[in-house]
Amino acid sequence: MRKAIALLITVMFVMVISVAIGYGLTQLKDASSSVVLEQKLYQDTMILDDVLEILRTSPELLHLADNNASDDLYLFLQNSQYLPLEHSKEKIVITFKSARSHININTLNKANEELFRNYFSRRMVGNTYIDVLKECMRINQEKEGYNDAYKSALFEKYPELFRDYIASKEHLDMINTFYMNEYGDTSLKNVPFSELFSYSDNPAEVIDLNYATVEVWSLLLDVAADRATVLTQNAGRYKSWKDVGLTPSEQKNIAKFKTTFFAPYLDVEIKVGEGTQRSKIYFTYDIKQKRGYDFVFKL
């Protein structure tokens, strides 16, 4: 009996030791991973600092800031869309795009609401979708006297979902998933959101018509894709409304949005590394103010 008890105690002791060792190794692995991530984040931050310094001191960008030159901005973006570099043996690719080529989804208001509804109607999306979007923009809506109760069950299902404005693509994806599940409207899958919307808490954000996409032109003017495609073919050449050549009805529609022919803002993407050690950095760069903002790191 004593031998059996001693054996049992020994087995239990070995099991406890095994569990402790296993747990310790797991913690060590997690700590090692954490250190690797911290090192990667530090390295990427250094790369970001270097890129920002290059942008701040770039003669081309300084010229753009001083001269409001839409032609020069277009030429810069055409020649700088893809820049492969090396930094401390890391392979880096930097891409630039206009940061004002899309419609800020949070500009949806009473004045232009019908244009939003018409655009989605052409995509066979139900009218209720715009009502759901409005519920997620309470700050903007309340400024216009919109204090109506919530009409959908979105915030019953997701009570902690941010509702002042639509903050990101991921935020909109959650809203879209709810809408499709709640109303059985899968037509929303046919909408090319990546070519249509940007996300900012500034409803006064302008659209640079020299970089507007087909989908953006289609919503702004309430026109079909073929007409919108014609307008994109002259990208980079617009300096005045005379250059655009809109019809009276198109002029009336586009007046409901804030537009320009020169917006000195860049969307910058930095890809760092290869294989499993890849990371991405996104931010917007204000050429005139020489500053970046809305930084996103993906490791």
Estimate the strand proportion: 15-25%
Low-confidence stretches: 2-11, 16-25, 28-32
Give the CA-CA distance, first to last residue.
58 Å
Tally of structural domains: 2
Secondary structure: number of strands: 9
Question: Number of helical runs?
Answer: 12
**What is the string of SSEs from the N terminus onward?**
HHHEEEHHHHHEEHHHHEEEE
Please describe what this structure looks like.
The chain has 299 residues and is of the alpha/beta class. It has two domains: 2-99 and 263-298, no CATH class; 103-260, no CATH class. The chain is built from twelve helices and nine strands. The chain has helices at 2-57, 59-67, 70-79, 113-122, 128-135, 138-143, 154-157, 169-183, 214-221, 225-232, 241-244, 248-254, and strands spanning 83-87, 90-98, 103-104, 197-198, 207-208, 259-260, 265-272, 279-286, 291-298. The strands form three sheets. A five-stranded antiparallel beta sheet has the order 1-2-7-8-9, with helices on one face. The chain has a two-stranded parallel sheet with strand order 3-4. Mean pLDDT is 84; it is low at 2-11, 16-25 and 28-32.
Which helices and strands occur, and which strands form pairs?
Layout: H1 2-57, H2 59-67, H3 70-79, E1 83-87, E2 90-98, E3 103-104, H4 113-122, H5 128-135, H6 138-143, H7 154-157, H8 169-183, E4 197-198, E5 207-208, H9 214-221, H10 225-232, H11 241-244, H12 248-254, E6 259-260, E7 265-272, E8 279-286, E9 291-298
Parallel strand pairs: 3-4, 5-6
Antiparallel strand pairs: 1-2, 2-7, 7-8, 8-9
Helix pairs in contact: 4-9, 9-10
